[in-house]
Write a structure and sequence with these properties.
Layout lengths: L4 E5 L5 H12 L4 H8 L17 E7 L2 E7 L1 H8 L20 E9 L2 H9 L1 H25 L1 E4 L5 E17 L5 E10 L1 E4 L4 E3 L2 H18 L3
Helix pairs in contact: 1-3, 4-5, 5-6
C-alpha cells in the first residue's frame, strides 16, 4: 500500500468546500471525468431523489471505537466546513482564510495487478475489498491514537484526541483509465481534544505519520 497526503483548502469564497463536495459525490480519479463531473458542482445532487441521492461513508473514531454512518450532500458540505453535519453547529473556531486546511486526503493503494486479478476473477474482489476495509480501520484507529492537536501560545501544549472523523471515497480506475481500485481517506482537520474542545489537528504530525500508514498497508497486504 502506497500513498501520500494531499491538502484540501477552503479557497476563495469557499470554492474548496464546493469542489471537495462535488468531487466526493460525483467525481473520480479518471482524467476524463474529473473536470467534467466536478465542474458540475455539488448542487447537482438535488437532481437525485431522496432514495437514490449519493452519499459517502463517515468513520467516527472515539473512545468507544469506530462508528460508521453515511452523509448526504448537505451534511458532507457542512462536515467539510468544520461543522457538525447533523446540527450544523461550528466545531471550534471557524477558519476563514482561503489557505485554511479543511481535509487531509490520504490515498491507500494496492498494486494494479490486484485490481486486474479482481476483474478477471470476481471471487477475488471480495477478498480485495476486505483488505481495503482492514487497512482503512487500522489507519483510522492509528490516527485517533497517535495524532494530536495543540493549545496555548505557539501551540506548545500538545493535547491527545478524543474524536476524529474520516470520510471514505472508493475509486475504481487510475488517471490513465487503467483498472486500479484505490481508496481516499479524508481526515477532517477539525478534531476533538481530550479536553472536549474542537480545534485543528497538528498538520505536521499528519504528514509525518503517513509513512506509518503506508507501512501498515504493506504489512496487511497478502504476500
Amino acid at each position: 500500500m502506497r500513498g501520500g497526503v494531499q491538502v484540501w483548502r477552503r479557497g476563495v469564497d469557499g470554492h474548496g468546500i464546493r469542489h471537495a463536495t462535488a468531487y466526493a459525490l460525483q467525481g473520480g480519479c479518471d482524467a476524463a471525468e474529473v473536470e467534467q463531473q466536478v465542474s458540475a458542482g455539488a448542487d447537482a445532487a438535488v437532481a437525485y431523489g431522496p432514495d437514490d441521492a449519493p452519499t459517502v461513508v463517515r468513520h467516527t473514531a472515539a473512545a468507544e471505537g469506530i462508528q460508521r454512518d453515511r452523509l448526504d450532500a448537505e451534511q458532507l458540505r457542512a462536515w467539510i466546513d468544520g461543522a457538525d453535519p447533523q446540527t450544523g453547529e461550528q466545531r471550534g473556531r471557524a477558519m476563514t482564510s482561503p489557505d485554511a486546511h479543511l481535509l487531509y486526503d490520504a490515498t491507500i493503494n494496492a498494486p494494479k495487478s490486484y485490481s486486474l486479478a479482481a476483474v478477471l476473477h470476481p471471487e477475488l474482489r471480495e477478498e480485495f475489498d476486505a483488505l481495503m476495509d482492514r487497512v482503512t480501520e487500522e489507519t483510522v484507529t492509528a490516527w485517533s491514537d497517535e495524532l494530536s492537536t495543540r493549545r496555548g501560545a505557539g501551540g506548545k501544549q500538545r493535547i491527545g484526541l478524543a474524536q476524529i472523523e474520516v470520510v471514505e471515497l472508493d475509486h475504481e480506475r487510475s488517471r490513465s483509465l487503467d483498472p486500479h481500485a484505490h481508496r481516499h481517506l479524508w481526515l477532517n482537520a477539525k478534531v476533538q481534544g481530550e479536553d472536549g474542545k474542537w480545534s485543528n489537528v497538528d498538520s505536521q504530525q499528519v504528514f509525518r505519520h503517513q509513512v506509518l500508514v503506508n507501512a501498515r498497508g504493506e504489512r496487511s497486504s497478502p504476500r
